[in-house]
Amino acid sequence: MAEPRERLLMLIDDEPAQCRLIGALAAREGWRTLVVREADSALATLATRQGMQVAAIILDQWVPGEDACALIAQLKARRPGIPLLMLTTSASPLLAVEAMRAGATDYLIKPVAPDRLMTALRHATTREAPRHELQHLTEKMPATADFDAMVGAAPAFRSALAVAAKAARGHIPVLIEGESGTGKEMVIRAMVAASARAKAPFRLINVGAIPANSVESVLFGHERGAFPGAFDRYIGAFQHCDGGTLALDEVDRLPAAVQDKLLTVLDKGLIRPIGAAHAFHVDVRVIAAANLPLADMVRGGHFAADLHTALAPVLVTLPPLRERPGDLPALARHFLARIGEQPGLRPLGITDSALALLGAFDWPGNVRQLQAVLFRAAVFCEGDALTSDDFPHLSDLLGDEAQSRPQRQEDAGVMLYTADGNLRPLEDIEADVIRLAIGHYRGRMTEVARRLGIGRSTLYRKLGDLGIDSAA
Predict the structure, then answer these.
(1) Residues 160 and 290 in one domain
(2) At residue 419, what are phi and psi to the nearest 5 degrees?
(3) How many other CB atoms are found less than 10 A from the CB of residue 282?
(4) Which helix (H) or strand (E) holds 33?
(5) Reduced to 3 states, what is the DSSP secondary structure of residue 109?
(6) pLDDT tens profile 221-261
(7) What is the CATH number for 376?
């Protein structure tokens, strides 16, 4: 039977403005919102005929009458299968761990962007694999800002880092392309840290998270009275970053009306706030990131060709995780080490069965999704290492495919045999070992040489003889 078009969402919250906002956003996705002001009413309502129709629950951490985590546990005891999302202003990993252990499906940090709320609701109520679950929380963990600390040995990934590291020392714009979750922000921050402007002002603006009619003001500023609601003068991001770096994430979503103004900044270094009588000069380096290839958007008429040219004198293309499966074990262990440092959690290992299951999934949300899934598994793990049983959602999604899919060569580290059962050439095995070592020791070539028991000069000679890029 087809799913009813309108579903019932219970919102447990006593803030009228927030209730109206969430109700309006949920309505766009076909939800009807039932607002309950406090804990006792929520529990009573859930037992009514109307309450039995509730398909998902959102509750605010500060709901009156009950500790939020205790209320989550009571709600889940009454309706074990219902998706439950908690709203909070806290980015504390400890609170997230407590909420998830109590039964929360997801953890949303206020103010919640409309897209983030809709994505969380959609993933909580469908069989779709979670792509951004816990995204905002996991992104609060200390981010890598050092090229040498980035995990991965895949040639395409190491080559991209080599291009970025070389470009970091310059002043021209750089465009970083890659699917959502591939690590574009990580590369941006590493570039800024390695640049001559490392101590100068820096801002990262997510264009896609800003309403289209506000992007111009956020970037270039506005004068008082420039438009209805402009009660005060506003200094834009370009002016704040004068002398430093401005990163524009999701630049592929930049409104057409703003593209010309950005091109003027790149070509002439001039900005004009909305309502200003004159333009003025700024010295800002622009690093842009795009989820979609801008060249394709230009061909489709959705992005200005001149702006694409100005943004991309240097292009860094990050491969998706499905194209670097050999990096997955090292990434998993790296994330688990970081997760284990968070309050309320502990360091965990990961078994071969778990890695095989992770390796069978294509990770549409890429590295960011992997980190979030590992975080959730770590919260509920009672042993010393994650096993395949700690990823029931992935097991359900993959079914027999996880067992039947041939293990990819990269997943096993270094394979000794070809698909027909014959030994691989020694030269190929040696090249794989060196690539694996470079990834494992994060490009620290002195350490790679030491662990392989050879000198640095020998290592570099082998890189040349085996045709391995020094960035690989």
Answers:
(1) yes
(2) -65, -25
(3) 19
(4) strand 31-36
(5) strand
(6) 998 888 888 788 889 999 999 999 999 999 999 999 899 99
(7) 1.10.8.60
Of 336, 384, 337, 382, nearest to 358 by C-alpha is 336
Q: Is there a single domain that holds both residue 166 and residue 286?
A: yes
Place of tokens 């990434």: 331
Owner of token pair 């609060």: 140
Residue 462 lies in a domain: no
Binned at pLDDT 50, 70 and 90, residue 430 comes out as: confident
Torsions phi, psi of 243, nearest 5?
A: 90, -10
**Domain span at residue 226?**
155-317
d(CA 317, CA 293): 9
CB count within 10 Å of CB 337 equals 12
The secondary structure of residue 240, as a DSSP letter, is H
First to last CA, the chain: 52
Confidence band for 459, pLDDT divided at 50, 70 and 90: confident
Regarding whether 292 and 329 lie in a shared domain, the answer is no
Residues 176 and 294 in one domain: yes
Q: Are residues 302 and 388 in the same domain?
A: no
307 shares its domain with 160:
yes
**Co-location of 366 and 353 in the same domain:** yes
Cα separation, 54 vs 35, whole angstroms: 11
Q: What is the pLDDT of residue 65?
A: 60
The pairing of strands 7-12 and 31-36 is: parallel
Q: What is the mean pLDDT of the chain?
A: 84
Total count of domains within the chain: 3
Q: How would DSSP label each residue in 276-319? A: -SS-EE---EEEEEESS-HHHHHHTTSS-HHHHHHH-SSEEEPP
pLDDT in tens, 18-58: 888 888 888 888 889 999 988 888 899 988 988 888 999 99
Q: Please name the amino acid found at residue 126.
A: T
What single letter denotes the amino acid at residue 169?
A: R
CA–CA gap between residue 143 and residue 136 (Å, rounded):
12
CB 68 within 8 A of CB 38: no
- What letter would DSSP give residue 470? T
At position 323, the amino acid (one-letter code) is: E
Please check whether residue 378 is in contact with residue 338, taking contact to mean a CB–CB distance below 8 angstroms.
no
Q: How far is CA 48 from CA 51, 52, 230, 467, in A?
A: 5, 6, 47, 69
Is the same domain home to 304 and 337? no
